[in-house]
UniProtKB/TrEMBL annotation:
Pfam family membership, one: FAD_binding_4
EC number: 1.1.99.39
Name of the protein: D-2-hydroxyglutarate dehydrogenase, mitochondrial
Membrane-spanning intervals of the chain: none
Catalytic reactions of this protein: (R)-malate + A = oxaloacetate + AH2; (R)-lactate + 2 Fe(III)-[cytochrome c] = 2 Fe(II)-[cytochrome c] + pyruvate + 2 H(+)
Presence of the UniProt keyword 4Fe-4S in the record: no
Ranges where the FAD-binding PCMH-type domain occurs: 133-312
Family listed: Belongs to the FAD-binding oxidoreductase/transferase type 4 family.
Domain of life: Eukaryota
Gene3D superfamilies xrefs: 3.30.465.10, 3.30.70.2190, 3.30.70.2740, Uridine Diphospho-n-acetylenolpyruvylglucosamine Reductase, domain 2 (3.30.43.10), Vanillyl-alcohol Oxidase, Chain A, domain 4 (1.10.45.10)
Length: 565
């Protein structure tokens, strides 16, 4: 279970220094004295941010197998166009008996709502993190080995039982929960770290290892997991690969398509695909493991992962800026790349709306005294604190001198560093506390990126849906994201999910993106949320090839049905 950390205010503020004041300063060192105090972090203590991301929810009891309930919050009720595929068998006590025989009687291996009452235990597996989707699953299976996964899938394939693989259930597109009565195959018990090579940095682990656990294991050995994200306390490596999660440092460490060296996966017919290579280079034919990265559980179950982990940086700095316009954010990014080059490890964007909402939820003091339309968080990670500080100082000086940045603060120690990060990482959770969120995770050429937020806000306001009082479903339209990757998170924070809001947003948002050759799914995947919209980012030839791959790996279609493919 993830741990909760309050959002605490930043303690020190960077001295406000206008360009005229700068002229009066005799030396750079004086001007940015604060910047000198780079965080010298030991490998084990660096950047351990931790969020509660898995909320237990008390849902009402679910219906008997195969019967949809007419409750408003079931996915099948909200989206009546989704129909249960009648080819799939309904679960019977005989099926359950088979799984009990395979996994044992222990409650930790199976949750059975078919032959008994288990609504409360099933509830967290049926409902997604956003509480937007809710399924009717009656059986959760928790295998503890690849062999058990193989036996389960073979049986499901032979008996036409549909399956949803589930990791930490932190996915944001409804891909990790069933729509109807699919069996949930939960990887949480496959949580062993199997190997680590301290010379090469290659980690081999089971798919159910929690990301933060893997990172802490690596920290003790001077390494870092090449992926970091706000849900790290709950999400699992198998889920990370299956969504091809991007996270906060993709800018530095690249995508999982590059860092993953090998995968072990089980196909629906029970075949174990052993591609668990530890090799950095391996050009022997098609790179089949890549198909599992980003497949969202539609072609098989990832059971093991081999991944290349970088050396953990010895020094980290985090700066948080206020900026007057999106143009200035772009300038700051350009300067950061140019001046910080190899030590730049994150460049994140937040608008005032997103920060105001965190502040409203947490009640904590904002990092800067004034408010600005935009904020950027910059992180550097390097091996030499003095060298990094010097570079960062020069950068800070130049962006202040040029008037690119209006105000800023620099973390003075590990606590402040983590605190500053919460103003970026904490947005998702804060929005979740306020009600329903319509989330769009998109890639657009940088120059046009923020325009989407403004155009969407205008559209929602013109539809009469945006306002400060309870009669308006929409509270705010905000934007934040991984500016370093041209990845915007457009979020529409609502007081309650409302079909009228969805109609105003979709397909408007997707059309807007397609017109600019963007991607409708930069990092979260398609899941159920974007099922209808894949055509806005992929042409018919590509969708056709994807369908052929799906047909080849999963001819009976039992893997995560009703989702994007
Ligand atoms: P789940 O949610 O359980 O599953 C996700 C998908 O993968 C589903 O389709 C599921 O069927 C499939 N799946 C899971 N495990 C397996 C397996 N072993 N084999 C086959 N298929 C499997 N995402 C980002 O990319 N970047 C971010 O910065 C980011 N930040 C987040 C912050 C918060 C607070 C939250 C709640 C979510 C965030 N996410 C982010 C989204 C989410 O955390 C990631 O998508 C994560 O990788 C999902 O991992 P999981 O284990 O929770 O997978
Ligand atoms: C993030 O970058 O914070 C995550 O992708 C989650 C979100 O989009 O809210
Ligand atoms: Zn993100």
């Amino acid at each position: 279970m993830a741990c909760r950390q309050p959002l605490t205010p930043v303690l020190r503020q960077l001295a406000r220094t206008t360009s005229s004041e700068l002229g009066r300063q005799s030396s750079r060192a004086q001007t940015f004295a604060l910047a000198r105090r780079a965080t010298k972090a030991s490998a084990a203590s660096t950047s351990r941010r931790c969020f509660s991301t898995t909320r237990q929810r008390a849902l009402k009891s679910t219906a008997p197998t195969c019967q949809a309930q007419s409750k408003d919050d079931f996915t099948s009720t909200k989206y009546p166009e989704l129909k249960r595929d009648e080819r799939f068998a309904c679960l019977t006590p005989d099926h359950v008996a088979y799984f009990r025989g395979l996994l044992g009687e222990s409650g930790s291996a199976l949750i059975d709502g078919v032959t008994g009452e288990a609504a409360a235990d099933l509830a967290p597996f049926n409902s997604d993190w956003m509480r937007k989707y809710r399924g009717h699953c009656q059986l959760v299976l928790k295998p503890s080995s690849t062999e058990e996964v193989s036996e389960i899938l073979k049986y499901c394939n032979d008996n036409l039982l549909a399956v949803v693989p589930q990791g930490g259930n932190t996915g944001l597109v409804g891909g990790s929960v069933p729509v109807f009565d699919e069996i949930v195959l939960s990887l949480g018990r496959m949580n062993q770290i199997l190997e680590f090579d301290e010379v090469s940095g290659t980690l081999v682990a089971e798919a159910g290892v929690i990301l933060e656990v893997a990172d802490q294991y690596l920290a003790e050995r001077g390494y870092i997991f090449p992926l970091d994200l706000g849900a790290k306390g709950s999400c699992q490596l198998g889920g990370n690969l299956s969504t091809n999660a991007g996270g906060l440092r993709l800018l530095r460490y690249g995508s999982l398509h590059g860092t993953v060296l090998g995968v072990e996966a089980v196909l629906p017919d029970g075949t174990v695909v052993d591609d668990l290579s530890r090799l950095r280079k391996n050009n022997t034919g098609y790179d089949l493991k890549q198909l599992f990265i980003g497949a969202e559980g539609t072609i098989g179950v990832i059971t093991k992962v081999s991944i290349q982990c970088p050396q953990r940086p010895a020094a980290q700095n985090v700066a948080f800026f206020g900026l007057e316009s999106y143009e200035q954010c772009q300038r700051a990014f350009r300067e950061a790349k140019g001046q910080l080059s190899e030590i730049l490890s994150a460049f994140e964007l937040m608008d005032e709306g997103s920060q105001a909402l965190i502040s409203q939820v947490t009640g904590t003091k904002r990092p800067l005294e004034s408010t600005y339309p935009f904020y950027c968080l910059i992180e550097t990670s390097g091996s030499n604190a003095d060298h990094d500080s010097e570079k960062l100082q020069a950068f800070l000086e130049s962006v202040m001198e040029e008037g690119v940045v209006a105000d800023g603060t620099l973390a003075q120690d590990e606590t402040q560093l983590r605190s500053l990060w919460t103003w970026r990482e904490g947005i998702t959770e804060a929005l979740g506390h306020l009600g329903g969120v319509y989330k769009y995770d998109v890639s657009i050429p940088l120059a046009q990126m923020y325009q989407l937020v403004e155009d969407t806000r205008t559209r929602v306001a013109e539809a009469g849906l945006l306002g400060d009082t309870d009669e308006y479903p929409v509270r705010a339209v905000v934007g934040y994201g991984h500016m370093g990757d041209s990845n915007l998170h457009l979020n529409i924070s609502t007081r309650r999910f409302d079909a009228r809001v969805e109609e105003v947003l979709e397909p408007f948002v997707y059309e807007w993106i397609a017109e600019r050759q963007g991607s409708i799914s930069a990092e979260h995947g398609l899941g159920l949320a974007k099922k209808k919209y894949i055509g806005y980012s992929r042409n018919p030839t590509m969708v056709g090839l994807m369908k052929q791959i799906k047909g080849l790996y999963d001819p009976k279609g039992i893997m995560n049905p009703y989702k994007y493919i």
